Amino acid sequence: MRLFFNLFYCFIFCLSIPAFSQVKNNDAEIKRANDILYENPNDSIKIAFSLLKNEKNADEIAHLYMMISTAYVAKRDIDSSLYFIMKTTNLINSDALLSTKIRILNSVAVQYQQMQLYDKSLETLDKVKELYEKLPADDKNRAYNREFNNMIRGMIYRSQSNPEMALEKFSQAVNYLKKLPQTKGNSSNISVILYNMGYCYMELNQNSKGSYYFTEAIKYGQLADAKSIEAYAFKGLSENLYVNHEYTKSLDLLDKADYLAKSIGDIVLSEGIYKLMANNYLAINNWEKYQFYSDKVLELKQEKQKKDEQSLNRYMNIQTSENLEKTNSAQTKFQMYQVLILGLSALSILFLGRSFLSHKKRNKLLKSTIENLTNAEQ
């Protein structure tokens, strides 16, 4: 029931880089696409594709692909999101800026975290750390990416049932974010972290602290004017009330969360709301509504499973392609080594043959000289 941090929100963090962002060209269109990214992702995708047609700069291409990926997450199309974020990885070894490479790897780490490939996510976060530590100590991007790193590690630790370590990382990240200008994107990020902190405290059986952080998450979600984030925060607080047997209050908040969630189409969010509704109705012996919401949960689970399978298949295809590329590269190198060895062998044989013939010629000449000297003495 306690849904873990969603990829959708992580990408808010990835893309809501403060005023020190590197994006410079097509500012008006990019700003418009970002502004409607979560309310109207289809239009954001259209804008990004139109900008991609004439874009040559590696950094701008990466930013646009990440925008498309994020928009697909907002549509809960994780398969397409994975496809486009993986396209950006081709730019990592290009002439893209260091900050762009960091953002690409951040996004990949989030994808792995969402797919519960935690070792791969942590491995990618370690690579990110190596890159952002190359930035100057006073570079704002260095501090921002450090706290992003903490944020995702916190998500992973929470997923691995280690709320203490998760809280340590979350606290560092949220304290940093609260010092930044409170833009909508920044308020969204703070709300997401506070939401997760609320669940961490619930896992530690500190429900009063959990209630506090969920309430704060609602406040920042409203500041961000982000329906989806606000809905998640309401769901978190309603679960806290459910655990404390305050079923009527819990259902009231779930109605608010459901109202906010209807226009979003987030399967994970809706599943969590309906499952909690079913549990509340079961607790108050309302069997009819319990069955109604249980059926809704089952429908959403089946829909989510199909999309998860698509994403996993996409990931497996990417891994197969990468392995095939590595194998082909190894074979090419092996063939080059074979040609080199054959060439060296041929040169060695030629050298030895020439030396042998030269030596044989000298011996023949020496033998002839000796015979001549012998005949002269006689």
Explain what the structure shows.
This protein has a domain at 226-321: Serine Threonine Protein Phosphatase 5, Tetratricopeptide repeat, CATH 1.25.40. Helix content is 80%, strand content 0%. The protein has helices spanning 7-15, 27-35, 41-52, 58-74, 78-88, 98-114, 118-132, 140-159, 163-177, 184-203, 207-224, 227-243, 247-261, 267-283, 287-377. α8 (140-159) runs antiparallel to α9 (163-177) and α12 (227-243) runs antiparallel to α13. It starts with 6 loop residues before the first helix and ends with a helix.
SSE order, one letter for each helix or strand:
HHHHHHHHHHHHHHH
What is the average per-residue confidence, as pLDDT, rounded to a whole number? 82
How many runs of DSSP E, i.e. beta strands?
0
Shape: elongated
Give the fraction of residues assigned to helices: over 70%
What structural class do helix, strand and pairing data support? mainly alpha
Q: Name the CATH architecture of the domain at 226-321.
A: Alpha Horseshoe
What gap, in angstroms, lies between the N and C termini?
116 Å
How big is the Rg? 31 Å
Proportion of strand residues: under 5%
Low-confidence blocks of residues: 1-23
- Which CATH class of the domain at 226-321? Mainly Alpha
Keywords:
single chain; 378 residues; mainly alpha; 15 helices
Protein topology:
Blueprint: H1 7-15, H2 27-35, H3 41-52, H4 58-74, H5 78-88, H6 98-114, H7 118-132, H8 140-159, H9 163-177, H10 184-203, H11 207-224, H12 227-243, H13 247-261, H14 267-283, H15 287-377
